[in-house]
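Thread title: Can someone regenerate the structure for this chain?

I was given the following input by a collaborator and told the matching structure tokens would be attached. They weren't. Posting the sequence so someone can regenerate them.
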Amino acid sequence: MTEEILEETMQSEDAASTEPKKTQKEIAEEIVKSFISTYPQIEDCNSFEITDYGEIKFSIIDFTKFNIPVALYNGDLFGDRDTAPYWLERKYLIQDIYSEVATKCNESSEYEIWEHNGYYRVIKSAEKEQLFYNEMTEEEKAEYNKQKRIEAINSEILSNKAYLSDTDYIVTKINEIVATGTEEEIQEVKSQYSEQLSKRKEARVRINELEKELADLDNSNI
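Best answer:
Regenerated them for you:
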């Protein structure tokens, strides 16, 4: 993309000026210099290479440091579109870098580009929720904590109910033996499943506790 823009820039200069024609590499060098001077922080994250044909190549040294204003990405910091030197070329350059960073994020599966407060920055996906939380008011945090607790309670209730459902066959088996078997057979099957029976009792107690807590939270004004 950048190389095509450079070609168009050269053709435009040929038509509008009788000055010595600049090579594509010279034009590219001017673009990079103006870009770096506009936002020098990028220099810490990227290294640029300009081929003899004027193609601008870059490699991301540490994509996790990517942090730029959205206005820079949109070209708003480069001046007037119609009069600023190499406005379009510089915009394409930053968008190419953005695309490279996005690719690195996707490859890592651990990071993402987050648009927040007028900036594009790379963050760990796992940290995004905490960043939102830190910006909440005390009332918002209280409501957030309440909803998170409700989610955790419902999840634990479902887990305990699933255990009861998965072990219902044990109760059915014991009831059948109680109805038709001897006292010895009854004690034998109860001993065989003593651990599961104990866990089922604990699960029922825990479900009752959680449902009471859930009811209290639903009735609270937090």
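The longest helix spans residues 138-166.
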